Amino acid sequence: MNRYADFRILIVDDNQNNLFTLRALIEKHMGVEVLEADSGQAALDMALQNPRIDLVVLDVQMPGMDGFQTASMLKVRQKTRDIPIIFLTAAYKTDEFQQKGYEVGAADYLLKPIDDNQLINKISTYLRLIEKERDMNRRLETLVEERTAELRLAKQYLENVINNMGEALLLLEPGGKINAANPAACRMLDYKEEDLLGMAIGDVFEEEEAVQANAFMGTWLEALIRTGTISSIEASFIAKDQRRVPVLFSRTALKDEAGDITDIICIAKDMTGYTRVEKGQA
Predict the structure, then answer these.
(1) Domain 165-270: CATH architecture, name and number where available
(2) What is the model's pTM?
(3) By C-alpha distance, which of 80, 179, 67, 84 is closest to 122?
(4) Please, what's the b/e burial string for 58-73 (b: 16 or more CB within 10 A of its CB; e: otherwise)?
């Protein structure tokens, strides 16, 4: 099986004899698909119209748009800028000439008259490099897909745990506004989640404790910044129907890489029917 059968090479030369020779050599030794263009403009049009071109073999000296101008045009277009270009020239005589080619995007040079072995060896080298890049991209795509699948499963698992846990969970922004609530919190407070969103955490406490909760958000943050977690305290929630719900209430901080608090997780255990528990210290 030909390892290069799915590669596509564009050869560009204003001389039909040169195009015929290039095509014959490449197809004989490489077995790749060969496209032809007899001018710089035709090469540019073909490169933009084809879904993929892997390598361009480009004559430097052509009437109208020469090889340098064609290469420059290919390199400024997003679709074609990463295609390797091998220049063909019979006038490769000075360092300035060589440098100009590299500046406009040449990967390599080949001299005319064409040496069969040199041509095939250079093309083989670039196709192998492209093959390795493709393989690396496939491996990367596979890893990304696997990682995405793992993260999706982890997210689903976490959501299931949160949605099925017996304790009420409220997610707060650092200022104390409620950003999310699990089903247990909604049942405890007799609110729909969308009704809780945007409420201040103090709005669900008993009036006296609500004042304290709102007043002590700064103290909470200071403690959370220091320790990440505050010990549990006894408190009382007031449900939508004004029902008082005694709870054991704890807070944990989520921080970013810089150590700044992004969210506060509050967990409340319904203590209705329990004996009085010892109050924790914030």
Answers:
(1) 2-Layer Sandwich (3.30)
(2) 0.58
(3) 84
(4) bbbbbeebbbbebbeb
